[in-house]
Specification:
The structure is a single chain. The protein is an alpha+beta fold and 90 residues long. It has a single domain, classed as Aminopeptidase (3-Layer(aba) Sandwich), CATH 3.40.630.30. Helices cover 31% and strands 37% of the residues. The strands form two sheets. A four-stranded antiparallel sheet has the order 1-2-3-6. It has a three-stranded mixed sheet with strand order 4-5-7. A hairpin with a 2-residue loop joins β1 and β2. The radius of gyration is 12 Å and the shape is globular. The N and C termini lie far apart (31 Å). The model has no long low-confidence stretch (mean pLDDT 91).
Amino acid sequence: MEFVHEENRIVLLNEGKVVAEVTFPSIDEHTVDINRTFVDESMRGKGIAGKIMEETARELRERNKKVVLSCPYAARWFEKHEKLRGDNIK
């Protein structure tokens, strides 16, 4: 499995199939909105959602993006992971 980083999403592939995805469309040039977290039913219960959220948090921090959390899962995840939250989360 490998993470694929695109401009406004990160996907996890397994044998070429998207098994997890986080999307974060731009609000403006400095801010994105994490609006969707998806894990394929076949991959649920394996910690995949947490891994892709860690990857997303790292990516957006490296890109120095401010983050709005309209995805309920992402909002709960960042509440539980204060160390990864950083000061870029609104």
